[in-house]
Amino acid sequence: MTATPARRLSRAAGDGRPAAPVRVLHLGLGNFFRAHQAWYTEHAGDAAAWGIAAFTGRSTGPAERLTAQQGLYTLLTRGPDGDRAEVLGAVTAAHPGADHDAWLRYWRDPALAVVTLTVTEAGYTRRADGDLDTGRPDVAADLAALREGAPVVTAAGRVLAGLAERRRAGGGPVAVVPCDNLPGNGEVLARVVSELARASGSAELAEAAGHASWVTTMVDRITPATEPADLDAVRAATGLADAAPVVTEPFTEWVLAGAFPAGRPRWEDAGARFVPDVTPYERRKLWLLNGAHSLLAYLGPLHGHATVSEAVADPECRRALLAWWREATGHLDLPQDELTAYRDELLARFANPRLRHALAQIAADGSQKLPVRVLPVLRAERAAGRLPEGASTVLAAWLLHLRGHGAPVRDAGADPALATGPLPAATRRVLALLDPALAEDDELAAGVAALAEGMLPRPAT
Asked: Which helix (H) or strand (E) holds 51?
């Protein structure tokens, strides 16, 4: 007997909620966005007035799968005691990143009020000093495209093209809200967009770059990549066929600072916080959560682990994790009891065995992540005359990652060839990649090399 095929998600069949008019535009149609910003919009008290048009970076698959489901998807929240499946309908339209005409069409719409981004740290196309990297081929291509009015590909290029299009159409300023793990991400995005406009030599683009309010945010929700088994879990829980489900954890946090000149959804109804300064929350999350993730991502595989929950259960990995947290906590400007509670909550989140968060996923783009997750604490410790065990362990484990120990290297900013050869010389080259001053610190370089030597997997006897 042949089983009845499961029905695909459809608004017409009563799944989810009616599509809302588009007033939010998003770049970076990935799992995190759909578990975080889209979730907050879904649960805003005025959600019926705020639909999202979401664009991928360069891929087409996610947009095609969501379009086939009229923007609907299942969010599977995995807690220690079970799953909760919820159909979200905040995404009204999904587009591939290459659909530049559609991207500009939304910017021309007077109803547009908010533009959000999740493009990862690498998506801001910056040099180590924070300036726009005009030497990158994609940035150079965007400069030529902007002068010719042709489609662009970088995040800064798309935002600038959109701002220019909106200004030409007579639209008012919008709020641009980056949601990536970068300190001062609003200021970072404003800077690279402004620098791109200046580099283009166009007075029109230079004026357009100021046609926005730049909102700084701190975002937090662990969201692993979707695996084939997750599609089966959603079908079992709902009886529906969902080609684009997202798995996440119960915890979520969003802190924002900045103005919304054209309005915004009532995200505070879902728990978002609006504050004068995001910095204390930003540093807490970047150092204690993201820094810990990077530590486990590079150290865990050296001990044979593939997921965060496996790594945090290993006594050696946990010892290094606690050392890192002791260092980082000493440089945070928040009450000690609040930091202790946050660390305890992180341990519980990391240990959740039902959330398969792959270390290989976290390990990508370390050259972009470590400067904001680890180096501020490392520099503060060195300024105090200390050689920090936790921060040095992260760097040593990353060095071994680049040398081929652990997950495959996926990092456009780090040439693995720099990590080859004798460890002492390789250590200095890798440290220089993050900050040339680190490579000149003899005590640090020797300490990182010694730690890396001690971490090398030993052949079984």
From this structure: strand 51-55
